[in-house]
Write a structure and sequence with these properties.
Shape of chain B: globular
Oligomer: heterodimer
CATH architecture of the largest domain in chain B: Alpha-Beta Complex
Radius of gyration of chain A: 19 Å
Radius of gyration of chain B: 19 Å
Structural class of chain A: mainly alpha
Strand content of chain B: 15-25%
CATH superfamily of the largest domain in chain B: Oxidoreductase, molybdopterin-binding domain
Largest sheet of chain B: 8 strands, mixed
Shape of chain A: globular
CATH class of the largest domain in chain B: Alpha Beta
Largest sheet of chain A: none
Helix content of chain B: 10-25%
Helix content of chain A: over 70%
């Protein structure tokens, strides 16, 4: 069943994308506004770190929601948003990382290396950030062509691992109240479960053809 | 004098058990109940305005105050709080702690003491001359403040109840009333919040019974109406909104050590050399400052307190 908004003209998609782009910048604009109005609280650096990290996870989950939403409600044009959402995840994690090395640690490389080696929650967070770099770097159409669709898709499935590490990073950071990491973790589990279901359906639906999942 | 124990009170009672400890309190609690049900308009639940109207006697400066440090602004001290009974976010307590009723209030002092007693908060304020104690406060999370507390050495209270030779530890129990503390409904920690000290730690002059800060009564989110402050230990050791002080023979169970024994020990002395399993304790961010500063052994109070731990392996007894 096709829901309303299932079929959109290219012009309409362009508009939606422009609005979505502006919306994706709202978390940053909000931080800038709070900062200039001295509303970041008693510990502004902690606030910025937590906020950029929180939004990174949100954007990762939004990116991973595109395929299941297309399947469920048939909004195929959502695919046109996916790269932008993924790049915003990278944008916010970069802010998160810069906040850590600049504002939080103030370029104390020795202390940071120790953190990365010794603190599991920083180790997994850092790993997730590093893994996201090649994905951002290969996000252009030219790179998709150069790598070939199959290899590109295989590479970009790393986002499953990245998002999982991101949630784990949050989980290991909190002292006791794990409600928020639990929400992120549950949503991620559902989104990943959707992939497993689609994959299995594909296998049973077309036993004769080679298994080539389009799920990404 | 026979005193009814809180244990004898049914959970179906509406007001919190400590209010039942004597008759005068009971009458006041009844007034609070009628106020809550709209039968009478009495001022038991204190609004911020009413709270400001409670004046503390003038506090004299103390020679035990930390000098040479800039005070953390009152706004930060009252809006950036860890007080899970009011929510786990740093800004939750300042938003929800207005529900706490710091008057009437009483504190049961019991256990291994010759003279158990229930102190009314008003009596507690007059137990000893109030002093201003400026202390560094280092949170286990890696941030710190400098706060001008108002109170007196906890030993002043101890002297008046005469602990027996069996009293080896002191346990502090905080209020756990879901009506006044929305965070209590969440099973995040094992309520009521419980903290404890070894007897010599409790008797140390730096350990204070605290009733105010910045010259005024304690704001609710900072542990009104009465708390302890132990400046050489991580902040969570300093129990807030205390309703019971119990002298005991065995080391008491403490809330964070119960929640995660690998991460939080009974002693929890500020120690830059012993890291939290998940993060370093070598540095801290002083609220209001940009860069981090080195964390000092015993939060800079080593000269006064290091002897309490002579010969102890502080890595083992973290």
């Amino acid at each position: 069943m096709a829901l309303p908004l299932a079929q959109l003209k290219p012009d309409q998609v362009k508009w939606i994308k422009a609005v979505a782009f502006a919306l994706c910048l709202v978390p940053l604009a909000r931080l800038a506004w709070l900062g200039t109005h001295h509303r970041l609280g008693a510990n502004p650096i902690e606030y910025i770190t937590h906020s950029t990290g929180w939004w990174t996870l949100c954007f990762l989950l939004m990116t991973l929601s595109v395929t299941p939403l297309r399947r469920l409600i048939g909004w195929n044009w959502l695919l046109r948003m996916r790269r932008m959402l993924g790049l915003f995840a990278f944008f916010y994690v970069s802010l998160h990382f810069v906040t850590y090395i600049w504002l939080d640690q103030f370029f104390d490389w020795h202390s940071m290396l120790k953190d990365i080696a010794k603190r599991p929650f920083i180790t997994v967070g850092f790993t997730a950030f590093v893994l996201l770099i090649p994905l951002a770097a290969t996000s252009t159409n030219a790179m998709v062509r150069r790598l070939g669709a199959r290899l590109w898709q295989r590479l970009h499935r790393a986002v499953y691992v990245i998002a999982s590490l991101g949630v784990l990073h949050f989980w290991w950071l909190v002292k006791k109240d794990i409600r928020e990491p639990l929400v992120f973790g549950t949503l991620l589990a559902l989104l990943l479960l959707a992939r497993v279901i689609y994959h299995n359906r594909k296998v049973t639906a077309s036993p004769g053809t080679a298994v080539r999942s389009q799920v990404a | 004098m026979s005193i009814k124990r809180p244990a004898a009170i049914l959970s179906s009672e509406i007001t919190s058990p400590h209010l039942y400890l004597n008759r005068r309190q009971f009458m006041r609690a009844a007034a609070a109940f009628s106020a809550a049900t709209g039968l009478a308009a009495t001022g038991i639940g204190l609004s911020p305005e009413a709270r400001a109207a409670i004046k503390l006697p003038d506090a004299r400066k103390s020679a035990l105050s930390t000098t040479g440090e800039d005070l953390t602004p009152l706004k930060d001290v009252t809006t950036y709080n860890n007080y899970y009974e009011f929510g786990t976010g740093k800004d939750d307590p300042s938003e929800t702690a207005h529900k706490l009723r710091p008057r009437p209030w009483s504190v049961a002092v019991e256990g291994e003491v010759a003279k158990p007693r229930v102190f009314d908060i008003e009596d507690m304020l007059k137990l000893a001359p109030l002093e201003e104690r400026v202390y560094r406060m280092r949170c286990v999370e890696g941030w710190s403040m400098v706060i001008p507390w108002v109170g007196y050495s906890f030993s002043e209270l101890v002297k008046r109840v005469q602990p027996t030779s069996k009293a080896k530890y002191v346990q502090f129990t905080s209020l756990a009333d879901p009506e006044q503390m929305p965070g209590i409904r969440m099973p995040i920690l094992d309520w009521p919040y419980s903290e404890g000290l070894r007897m010599d730690e409790a008797m140390h002059p730096l350990t204070i019974l605290c009733v105010g800060l910045y010259g005024e009564v304690l704001p609710n989110q900072d542990g009104a109406p009465v708390r302890v402050v132990i400046p050489w230990k991580y902040g969570f050791k300093s129990g807030k909104s205390i309703v019971k002080i119990r002298f005991v023979e065995e080391q008491p169970k403490t809330t964070w050590a119960l929640a995660n024994p690998r991460e939080y020990g009974f002693y929890s002395n500020v120690n830059p050399q012993v890291d939290h399993p998940r993060w370093s304790q070598a540095k801290e961010r002083r609220i209001g400052e940009f860069g981090k500063r080195a964390t000092l052994m015993f939060n800079g109070y080593g000269d006064q307190v290091a002897s309490l731990y002579a010969g102890m392996d502080l890595k083992k007894y973290y």
